[in-house]
Amino acid sequence: MRAVLTAGPTLEPIDPVRFLSNRSSGRQGYALAEALAALGIEVTLVSGPTALNDPPGVATVRVETAREMLAAVEDALPADVFIAVAAVADWRPAEPSGVKLKLDKSGIGALKLVENPDILRTIAALPPGARPRLVAGFAAETHDMLVHARDKRLRKGADWIFANDVSGDVMGGTHNTLTLITPDGETRFGPAPKDEIARQIAQALHGALAR
Ligand code: C5P
To answer: Residue 202: enclosing H or E segment and its boundaries?
Structure first.
């Protein structure tokens, strides 16, 4: 059984010294990669920049941008399951500057952004045969969590969505609470430490794949 995961933030260069990014620590994705490997699953983790060590027993590929992350995921396929845990930057500077930008109308003040590829949606839309049997994503929401997460599952073409209430200190924190949304129903995990949540959802993924 093979799994491919994304984790962490992406980093989108503005110029040689600046970038766009977010507060994802990568902890939940790394913990999930480790928990899946502990169940005997062959795991490739495609990670944006984090302060974490590579999880034991996991092939870890380090990338910076969303486009590099998508390419590394495609390289790591085929797999039985793809799990998008990364907090991918939705936007990137259209043309990163080769020199440090100045604070005027031709520089930072005129920064143009373009949309990044949606990795989860791209993998979920692969044709049968190339598409992993189970495609799962995370929905980090600060309000109306379940409504947004149910909608996200359908819009992204994912089989499963883990809805994640990030209104507290989840991003960068040690604990988490998740609601798993599948076509068959909804299950709550936690509140618990992220590695405990990871063990529980790894079991759920393993169980679904073994069926
Ligand atoms: O739309 P939103 O960013 O909230 O969706 C979250 C889910 O989609 C996560 O599973 C995330 O890893 C994935 N995603 C992605 N590529 C993007 C944006 C989000 O894979 N560009």
So the answer is: helix 194-210
